[in-house]
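Handout, page 2. Input:
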Amino acid sequence: MQVKGWHVAREGEAVTLARRCPARFDLKVETLLPPVGRLDRLAHQVRQDMWRALRDLRGFAPVVRVTPCEGGVTVEAGGEVAGAVPRRTVEARIADVLEDRANRARWVNWAA
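Output:
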């Protein structure tokens, strides 16, 4: 399903949000969040904040996958990159977004 230029794929209980289809993770960082009711809303919020942090990265197409797990949800954030990038540096920037306490609280409230 496509929503405003974003592809939303549902694979079992998991939700994947991507600009391009099929989604591809050239870069990926994972985190665990508490349980939420709306996985698609969580994916969109994570994507927005990740995009704000990486909008200067040329050729970047964000991908977020949210999967329910025991004790919460696993969020995989990253995406596809056209060209060479400093992988560790970019993944560290994504990790900063995912581990920011204010972001996490806002995401969980929005997706509750």
